[in-house]
Amino acid sequence: MTLLSARNVLKGTVKKIEHGVVNSEITIELAGGAEIVSIITKSSTERLGLKEGKKCSAVIKASNVMIATDL
Amino acid sequence: MTLLSARNVLKGTVKKIEHGVVNSEITIELAGGAEIVSIITKSSTERLGLKEGKKCSAVIKASNVMIATDL
Amino acid sequence: MTLLSARNVLKGTVKKIEHGVVNSEITIELAGGAEIVSIITKSSTERLGLKEGKKCSAVIKASNVMIATDL
Amino acid sequence: MTLLSARNVLKGTVKKIEHGVVNSEITIELAGGAEIVSIITKSSTERLGLKEGKKCSAVIKASNVMIATDL
Amino acid sequence: MTLLSARNVLKGTVKKIEHGVVNSEITIELAGGAEIVSIITKSSTERLGLKEGKKCSAVIKASNVMIATDL
Amino acid sequence: MTLLSARNVLKGTVKKIEHGVVNSEITIELAGGAEIVSIITKSSTERLGLKEGKKCSAVIKASNVMIATDL
């Protein structure tokens, strides 16, 4: 079983993929309905076989999560 | 109204705060129940007045969201 | 009033915008004359209504600021 | 002469250093008066010989600079 | 089989672990002898069961790799 | 002599360069044979004079190195 040091491994489903020239923008719907947008290279999108409806996880280091109040 | 260039501004509520010497670990419960952990400095925790139950947003740049399959 | 956990919120003015296919390169002139370059998506540039002369802030986490000597 | 791929290499002077157990918080005053806070390890602070008044540069990747309006 | 969007997944072996109060500093020896230092939380070090001699991978997004010449 | 606060300054040689519209993907071969991929802007690639065979260093903050087991 693979383990990652990143604290946030959020299970979800690919909701939408938009391809640019080099990058893809992937919208992931988490359990409960919140959505997270990820930008990865198009080659990684293909290597992972991402497509709408596929199960995946959003991986985010805790130190990359800022907090805002009253936004 | 304040606008941020970051693509992910996820509304939620502070669920838990744990203080280290310098940093705080903040667990945010998003609408729908998913949880995100953030690590910020303890001085920022105080400056923002974070405490359990307070409304806040998790702010994450799309390029800081990696994707994993089959984790 | 919106508060952010990031330590650096530097007030300035948009000095120059260059658009690529997906991203925009924004040059911000800080009070005092120092300049900071930011790369954000073109869609965020539009969403924030950035144009030359507009007031804005550069937001940078302290842990993303490296230090060099004798460069 | 050393060159770095990072777009922002901002010359300044160390204004203040605060040491934690593991990290140091370095305040750099840029030409013109703007200030940037950096968090690096205390061992790097020592390795670079940083102290108040020393010349140094703040190095920041353009993609780590977010933009906010009306903050 | 788990796949990650990060471009750099470098196989190696834990060479040294130093624990701070909150974080651990992990030195990984890559095949061929190059060494990479990682800082992760002590809780992640324990969760992954890291110890000297254990096989692991260093995971680094390509956009987090800067380049310097003549350093 | 230039010093950087980043913990990882890994000496190597440019093995391959692929240009996109805005960014370049640089493959660096480290001493011992491990390879690291970096994405920087094409303008930085030109500014640093990068080409196959050129000596350079990959610069990576320790906090940007995640760890995975059993990948």
Biggest beta-sheet profile of chain A: 4 strands, antiparallel
Distance between the termini of chain A: 39 Å
CATH level 4 superfamily of chain A: RNA polymerase II/Efflux pump adaptor protein, barrel-sandwich hybrid domain
Q: Give, in order, the helices and strands of chain A.
A: EEEEHEE
Instruction: Assign an overall shape of chain A.
Output: globular
Looking at the overall shape, the CATH architecture of chain A is: Beta Barrel
- Could you tell me which chain pair has the largest interface and how many residues each side has? A-B, 41 and 41 residues
What's the total helix number of chain A?
A: 1
How many domain units of chain A? 1
Classified by CATH, the class of chain A is Mainly Beta
Report the helical percentage of chain A.
Answer: under 10%
CATH topology of chain A, by name, is: OB fold (Dihydrolipoamide Acetyltransferase, E2P)
